[in-house]
Amino acid sequence: MLQFIVKTVLSALIIASVSTISKRIPLVGAILISLPLTSILALIWLYSDTRDSQKIVDLSNNICLMIIPSIIFFIALTLLIKSNVKFQYSIIAASVIMIISYAVYVFFLRKFGIKI
User: Fold this and answer.
1) Residue 34 pLDDT more than 80?
2) Which domain holds residue 116?
3) Mean pLDDT, residues 37-46 taken together
4) Fewer Cβ in 10 A, N or C end of the chain?
5) Cα Rg for the chain, rounded, in angstroms?
């Protein structure tokens, strides 16, 4: 339980720090958040929990495969906000678009025999 709390607090501190930095210097915030911080943390936590290198390889490969649908979220969000859709609705719509993109993307990956 203590390990879970440490993971949660550390992860939250990183996210809060990047958010705070982004208020003052958006470019630095964007650079930091574009780093795969959550992926790196997840890989570290997974390895520390399992010591299983194959699980790290599998997760890393799956993360690589899932980048494309993630990018769709940011494209949709930008287009929606630029179209004067309120922020809250833009986030919701971009999330729905991303979820649909994931479903379609996974369908095609499986259709082409790519194991995920």
Assistant:
1) no
2) 66-116
3) 87
4) N
5) 17
